[in-house]
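hey
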C-alpha cells in the first residue's frame, strides 16, 4: 500500500531557520504549515542519528554537538561517539527516557519532531508521543529486518489511526546497499500494512550516518525510485481537519465569579475538542439536555468572535444554568455524541499487573472521571501473526485487546476515528492513581478486526 507524492518537492536545506522552544520562528516561519511527526525504533536502530541529521539540514550554519567535520568528503557525518556514548550511559543507569522534542523549519514547513522511546517498557510514553503525530517514522535496522518491536510500532500506528507511516530502513550501507534486502522488507511491510488497514505507507532505504536518501537521492541505491525522506516530510499532505469534526466543548472548570470589564459572570473553561464555536451559537448541554446560547468567548482577557479546535477559552452563556466539570457542550443540530455506560474499545495495556475481566478502574474521559468495570475481553492481538486471540484472556503489559466496559456514569463519547479527545480514555488504578491503560473507543468491533 503506497501513496505517490508530487516530485516537485522542496527539500529541507541549510538556509532554513530554527524555531524557538514555543514553536515560534523567524522571518515569517510561523506562516508556514506545521507538520507534527515522531520517530521510533528499537534500541540501536539510529533514532538519535537520524534526528541529528534532520536538524543539521534545517539549521543555518549549524554547530550542533552531534555533527562532525566531513573530513574533506563533502558529506557531513554524525558524531556517533557522542550519541552512542549518551545511549550507553543511559542504558548502564537503567534509564528509560521519554520523548525528546525538537522544533525546526524548512523552506516550506515548520516541524515539530518527537523522538518516541523505543524500549518495550516505555509503552505509555510511546502512545502519548505518537497519538498527536501527522506522520510516524518507524526505523528498521536493515541487518535485522522486521522484529517484534517493529510490529508493535505498526500496531500502535493502526490503533491510533495515524494517517501517514514512513518505514525508514536504516543502515542500508551495512548490507552493501542491497536491493534484495530492501525488497524483502518492503514486501513484508506492505503485507502488514494491508492487514492493519494503514492508510498511507512509504518504505525508504537510508543511511542516517552518511545521509543517503535523506535530502538527496543516493547514487548508491539506483534501484530505489522513490522520494527522499526530506522530500516526503516537506510534501506529505497534512489535513488538520479537526475543525470539521462534530462540535465538542468539554467543560474543564467552572469559574464563579469571573470579572470581565467590571462585570461579574460565570465562565466555563476548557479546550475546544472539535469544530468551531461562535458567539450566538445555540448549544445543547449534556447530560442535562438543556439549551443555551453563547453570549461571549474570552481568551485571557480578550473577547473572541469564535474559537477553533484545540483553543483554550472561556465561554459565557445566556441564562442561569447549573453546569459542572465534565459536562459537554455540543452545537444544536450537529451529529450528537453517543451516551452510554456500556462501551466497546481497543485498549493498550501499560501496566505490569494484567488486565482481567471483572476488574475495576477509574476511567478518565475528556474532563470527567467515573468508575468502570471490565465486562469482558473479546480478544487480544498476537503481534507475531497479527491474529486475534479469543482463547487467551490474560492481557499483559504492552498487549492490545478489544474489551467492553461498563461505567458507573454514562459517558458522552464519539468513535475515536471521529474525535481523538471524546473518543479516547485512560484507565487509572484507584489504589496507586497510576495510568495503566489507554483506550480508543470503537462502535463496531469488526471494523478493527486484524484477522488475516
Amino acid at each position: 500500500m503506497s501513496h505517490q507524492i508530487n516530485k516537485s518537492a522542496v527539500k529541507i536545506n541549510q538556509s532554513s531557520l530554527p524555531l524557538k522552544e514555543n514553536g515560534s520562528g523567524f522571518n515569517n516561519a510561523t506562516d508556514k504549515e506545521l507538520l507534527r511527526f515522531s520517530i521510533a525504533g528499537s534500541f540501536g536502530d539510529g533514532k538519535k542519528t537520524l534526528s541529528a541529521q534532520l536538524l543539521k539540514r534545517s539549521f543555518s550554519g549549524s554547530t550542533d554537538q552531534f555533527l562532525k567535520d566531513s573530513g574533506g568528503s563533502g558529506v557531513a557525518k554524525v558524531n556517533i561517539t557522542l550519541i552512542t556514548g549518551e545511549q550507553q550511559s543511559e542504558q548502564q543507569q537503567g534509564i528509560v527516557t521519554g520523548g525528546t522534542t525538537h522544533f525546526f523549519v524548512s523552506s516550506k514547513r515548520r516541524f515539530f519532531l518527537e523522538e518516541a522511546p523505543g524500549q518495550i517498557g516505555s509503552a505509555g510514553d510511546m502512545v502519548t508521543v505518537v497519538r498527536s503525530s501527522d506522520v510516524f517514522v518507524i526505523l528498521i535496522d536493515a541487518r535485522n529486518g522486521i522484529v517484534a518491536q517493529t510490529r508493535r510500532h505498526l500496531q500502535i500506528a493502526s490503533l491510533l489511526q495515524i494517517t501517514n507511516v514512513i518505514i525508514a530502513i536504516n543502515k542500508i550501507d551495512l548490507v552493501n546497499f542491497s536491493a534484495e534486502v530492501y525488497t524483502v522488507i518492503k514486501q513484508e511491510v506492505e503485507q502488514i500494512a494491508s492487514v492493519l488497514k494503514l492508510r498511507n505507507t512509504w518504505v525508504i532505504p537510508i543511511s542516517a550516518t552518511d545521509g543517503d536518501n535523506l535530502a538527496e537521492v543516493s547514487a548508491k541505491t539506483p534501484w530505489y525510485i522513490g522520494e527522499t525522506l526530506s522530500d516526503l516530510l516537506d510534501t506529505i499532505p497534512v489535513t488538520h481537519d479537526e475543525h470539521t469534526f462534530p462540535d465538542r466543548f468539554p467543560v474543564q472548570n467552572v469559574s464563579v465569579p469571573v470579572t470581565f470589564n467590571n462585570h461579574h459572570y460565570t465562565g466555563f473553561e476548557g479546550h475546544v475538542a472539535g469544530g468551531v464555536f461562535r458567539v450566538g451559537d445555540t448549544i445543547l448541554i449534556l447530560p442535562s439536555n438543556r439549551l443555551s446560547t453563547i453570549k461571549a468567548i474570552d481568551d485571557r482577557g480578550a473577547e473572541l468572535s469564535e474559537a477553533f479546535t484545540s483553543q483554550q477559552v472561556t465561554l459565557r452563556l445566556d441564562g442561569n444554568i447549573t453546569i459542572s466539570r465534565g459536562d459537554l457542550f455540543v452545537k444544536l443540530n450537529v451529529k450528537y455524541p453517543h451516551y452510554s455506560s456500556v462501551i466497546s474499545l481497543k485498549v493498550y495495556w501499560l501496566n505490569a499487573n494484567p488486565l482481567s475481566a471483572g476488574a475495576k478502574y477509574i476511567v478518565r474521559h475528556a474532563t470527567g472521571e467515573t468508575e468502570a468495570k471490565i465486562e469482558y475481553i473479546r480478544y487480544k492481538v498476537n503481534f507475531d501473526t497479527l491474529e486475534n486471540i479469543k482463547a487467551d484472556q490474560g492481557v499483559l503489559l504492552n498487549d492490545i485487546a478489544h474489551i467492553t466496559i461498563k461505567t458507573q456514569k454514562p459517558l458522552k463519547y464519539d468513535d475515536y476515528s471521529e474525535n481523538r479527545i471524546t473518543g479516547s480514555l485512560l484507565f487509572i488504578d484507584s489504589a496507586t492513581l497510576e495510568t495503566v491503560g489507554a483506550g480508543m473507543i470503537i462502535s463496531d468491533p469488526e471494523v478493527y478486526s486484524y484477522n488475516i
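The first strand starts at residue 33 and ends at 40. The chain has a mean pLDDT of 80.
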